[in-house]
Amino acid sequence: MNTPRLPTSVLPRRHGLALAAATLMALLAAPGSALAQDKISDGIVKIGMLLDMSGVYADIVGPGSVIAAKMAIDDFGGKVLGKPIELVVADHQNKADLTAAKAREWFDTQKVDMLADVAATAPALAALEVAKQKNKIALFPSAASSRLSNENCSPISVHWTYDTYALAAGTGRGVVKNGGDSWFFLTADYAFGTNLEKDTTDVIKAEGGRVIGAVRHPLNASDFSSFLLQAQASKAKIIGLANAGGDMINAIKAANEFGITKTQKLAALLVFINDIHSIGLPVAQGMLLTEAFYWDANEETRKWSRRFFEKHKRMPNMAQAGTYSAITHYLKAVQATGTDETTAVMAKMKALPVNDFMTKNGQIREDGRLIREMYVFEVKKPSESNYPWDYYKLKATIPADQAFLPLSRSVCPLLKK
User: Staple partner for 189: which of 17, 216, 305, 372, CB 3.0–4.6 Å?
Assistant: First the structure.
């Protein structure tokens, strides 16, 4: 029996269909393809930042963090998968309720895809709860509390730059080993301050030191005299400043004015280079501090920081560098997965190592903590500083596996699965 032959006119049609099918499969498989671009929700990647733009932390995270975010977006080309990247910013005024309301509004009506930063611990924790409800990614380059990757860890968030545990492990341990074995805390009266005091107290006791007492002060305190007098009366060798920004700067200046630093030493537990610039080297010299980034560490950090300086007229701090790093890593994950869908992007962020001018071989742990090296610096004497913003000398590098809370001590709910 002869096999029936198809008409010659059908053969090209079948060949064309096969070619079209193969082309379609290739398009579907390509993350940067036109069809992959359809997986970008609403045709735009919208990034939100809830910052302190006018209050006690504005110098740390305000306009400077916005500049860092815009640099990250511009350096990525302004688009991902052919779709535009948009940045929206709001001033949360350090109010948790305002932060939660704005995050909810952004997710529900403004089509914001992720939060690139929420400054300060209380607002960050409030925004995190909303992000979990809406299944949106939330990154925290500037908030400090270790709760963000411990008690309050989540599958949609990453604590990016540093945390209270790392600050305690660096500065707290370093001060105790240098003879500062009795402490009195001056603590900001909200989640960040109390977490920082607790984490540092644990380190002090583990190193054989003791905590004599503590006093709480309100955020953006106008007068530190009564708090410092209590610290002075304690006779502790070290007055631990578990606060930040303007509060920390004002406490240091007041302690010097009252002559307290002649008999007791200050240990500022969260210090940014902006703070040293404001305080000045004559007052800040000799201070130990823990940082995740220093602009003058190497040629790569200097190159990026000088670009930042051109836009902001001051050198970047670790929170601002962390904002650039976090947004860039997020956009790389969107590019690699071909979508901005939360679960897929977060999985890719955890799979990809973090490699940039700030972090080398960083890895996002299962509890949402970015694991990376931390650094202990000493503030230079005025005579040691050779040019503007030449403020730090490196004293120690804390390995990544030692800088953050070990998983064996974590109570992160994600680890119980």
Answer: 216
